[in-house]
Amino acid sequence: MVSTPIIAAWSRRSTVKFKGHLLDDTVKSVYGLAVADINGDGQLDIIAGSTGDPIVAWYEAPHWKRHLVTDQGSGHITIAPYDLTGNGTPDLIVGSGFNRGVNAAGGYLHWLEAPVQDGQNWKSHHIADVPFIHRIALANLSERGSSSTPFLIVASIRGEDGKPGEWRSPGSLWCYELSDTPQDTASWQSHLLDDSLHINHGLSINDVDQDGRDDVLISCTEGFNLV
After folding, report:
1. Which of 7, 44, 110, 189 lies 20 to 30 A from 128 at CA?
2. 187 SS3 class
3. For 190-199, what is each residue's pLDDT tens digit?
């Protein structure tokens, strides 16, 4: 692992201007965001999870019609789309139950199974309890030319010990093997990558050293880390 402080610069001379478009003003505290072609029409849709409402929804491009995924649970803070069932439709792996003001209360990893037809329920399948889960991302960690199945990287922002609202306890970084039988909770195998970093907040995946395998980038109190 390499830890490096980062200094970033922003050019004030940039002529690029962005225009904001409100997609939904009925959901509070949207935190988890992802994009995927949910309905198979060749356009990227937007998936959003709320930490203020028990809502995960997807918004259909190009007019952003809202489709409810679930109105159960809470703290839907991070989302990774992936077709776990192999039927051609992305399912949603979600980190939920996040609440920074309590100790180990309800943080968990689960996946929501895409229905056969729009309007049907997305079934939730529990994967693991992950207190203070904060970021998830898919990464290709296999050797060049081997399995193309990605791994799931999971980061918790802090540990379980300590008082509510404290951030002194280090978080954890895990690697989960995606299961061929994802409905079986016991089939999800996990491997601890690190449990020494504090306030794991930013997670990005990229092949930094260009060896054909993704690297894991994590930002935390200690700085910017390459795993």
Report:
1. 44
2. helix
3. 999 999 999 9
